[in-house]
Amino acid sequence: MNLTTATNIAQQALSTVSAESATVSRNINGVNIPGFAQKLANVISTYDGGSEVVSVTNAQNQALFGNVLGATSASATQAAISNGLTSLLAIVGEPGSDTSPAEQLSDLTNAIQQYEASPSSSSLATAAVTAAQKLAGTLNSATATVQQVREQADTQMASSVSSINSLLTQFQNVNQQIVTGTATGADVTDLQDTRNSILTQLSQQIGITTSTGANGEMSVYTDSGVALDQGGTVSSVTFQPTQTYTAGTTGNAVYIDGIPVTGSSSTMPIQSGALAGLATLRDDVTVTYQAQLDQTASGLISAFSETNPANSSDTEAGLFTNGASTALPTSAQVTGLAGTIAVNAAVDPSQSGNPELLGNGINFNFNTSDQGSFDTQLEQYLTNLSANQTFSSAGQIGTTNTLEGYATASVSWLDTEQQQVTSESAFQSTLLSTSTTALSNSTGINLDDEMSQMLDLENSYSASAKLLTTINDMFADLANAVDQATSA
User: Fold this and answer.
1) What is the structure's pLDDT at 187?
2) Where does residue 125 rank: exposed (0-12), middle (13-18), buried (19+ CB within 10 A)?
3) For 257-309, what is each residue's pLDDT tens digit?
4) DSSP string, 281-299
5) For the stretch 366-387, what's the b/e string if a residue is b when 16 or more beta carbons lie within 10 angstroms of its beta carbon?
6) How many C-beta neighbours within 10 Å does residue 176 have?
7) At what angle do helices 286-303 and 403-443 cross, to 10 degrees?
8) How far apart are CA 281 and CA 84, in angstroms?
9) Which secondary-structure segment (H or E) carries 468?
10) pTM attached to this predicted model
11) What is the pLDDT of residues 93-132, one digit of tens each?
């Protein structure tokens, strides 16, 4: 090896160590930056025995990153459902709570039993009507809360769609820069960090999968397989929010380039992310619970209905009515009935009604002999309350039960839903934490390692510099020797 070659090797070594040091410095500076991946300086040997840094790449682990995206989406799904269920439980209460329809139905039954034992007591009649009013009010409030939760979910879905479109636009821009940079050999590692950060935010809104081409271009799909960004073309995510919800309102679907990804018409429904959770809350959980409330209201009207003693085909609503109407609700009127059920004004003292009509008959006079101890109608009510009724399967808690049994099952269903969501949410949160830690350990910055590497590089730089000085000295000695030989 001649001195010229040695000089080149030493200069390359200095340049290489400088580039590696710069990379390590970036890593040290990025230690507290969320999503910052470790930069790796890729060093090769040159033809003359030297070295050079040919590229800087990110430490990557696509499998772990995919796990983080999946866990982020799943956790966001459960959080969206849990928030809605919490609002419902705050109104109707947990099993055994005094605020639950089941407990208030039990209170009504007890009040009628006491009234039946002393049918001449006007105070007990009033107490029974008061219990009925409390129950009807709870069903009304629960319905209002259910629809409010659906409205809020709908609004949040619109916000989620807006976020998705914004993130997809950002993704497209960064994705294109990476493709261009990769083609020219530029360092695109910071752009890749930015792209991963966008994907993490996107996964909070909607479950996604990704694939990356040889040119660095990444395509993004929903977890149901619908393209969000493919070949550099971004899909349009659209949603028309609904301002006001009633029990019969069906919320609009979310579309991706015209393909419905939420709602019953969707053939490729999204599975996770906040958007999926909100759609489940708006279209499934709350709709099912509303059906249970409506079935309870229908059962109440039926249990306290009155049949004309002179005409068995003439039956009207008694203690409980559909709004102000004493007509029995048709099957088409059951949806939303819990929101309109009321206590018959004829027994409501605040509306100049007479509570004692509850025992004698509201629409028809069953106490024709005007007996002070007449309790036949009250006994009939208690019989009806203890008898099995048929309920719609829409409530998903069985189709045959006593009214109180059905109301109890409804409260338990809601509580179970909340417990399941809470349990799943805790599991997904743990999974997300574990996946994030594993990804950080695999691709993140270990400050101790970086500082140790920096110390090694400083030593290498000093050695290379010393070698270069030595070579320069040798060049100088050679030059002096040549001068002296020439002078002689």
Assistant:
1) 94
2) buried
3) 999 999 988 999 999 999 999 999 999 999 999 999 999 999 999 999 999 99
4) IIIIIHHHHHHHHHHHHHH
5) bbeeeeeebbebbebbeebbee
6) 13
7) 170
8) 7
9) helix 447-487
10) 0.89
11) 777 788 889 999 999 999 999 999 999 999 999 999 999 9
Separation CA 136–CA 109 (nearest Å) = 14
Single-letter residue type at 400: T
Position 51 scores a pLDDT of: 87
The DSSP symbol for 218 reads E
As a whole number of angstroms, the distance between CA 316 and CA 308 comes to: 8
**Mean pLDDT score of the chain, rounded to an integer?**
93
Question: Do 47 and 25 contact (CB within 8 A), yes or no?
Answer: no
Dihedral sign for Cα 449, 455, 460, 461, please.
Answer: positive
Cα distance between residue 416 and residue 439, in whole Å: 34
Half-sphere exposure of 281 (CA within 13 A, CB side): 35
In the block, which residue shows the tokens 């959080």?
79
- Tokens representing 160 are 């989620």
DSSP annotation string for 29-88:
HTTTSTTPPPEEEEEEE-TTS-EEEEEEEE---HHHHHHHHHHHHHHHHHHHHHHHHHHH
Asked if pLDDT for residue 5 goes beyond 90, the answer is no
The three-class DSSP label of residue 239 is strand
- Residue 83 or 261, more confident: 261
Residue recorded with tokens 């497209």: 172
Alpha helices in 341-446 (DSSP H): 357-360, 376-386, 403-443
Separation of alpha carbons 326 and 308, rounded Å: 13
pLDDT in tens, 388-405: 999 999 999 999 999 999
DSSP secondary structure letter of residue 215: T
| 241 touches 279 (CB < 8 A) | no
Q: Among 423, 407, 418, which residue's Cα sits nearest to residue 96?
A: 407
Query: In the block, which residue shows the tokens 């971004």?
Result: 234
Beta strands in 235-314 (DSSP E): 237-239, 254-256, 259-260, 306-307
Phi-psi region of 255 (alpha: psi -120 to 50; beta: other; left: phi over 0): beta
**Rounded Cα gap, residues 343 and 129, in angstroms:** 8
The answer to whether 37 touches 59, Cβ cutoff 8 Å, is: yes
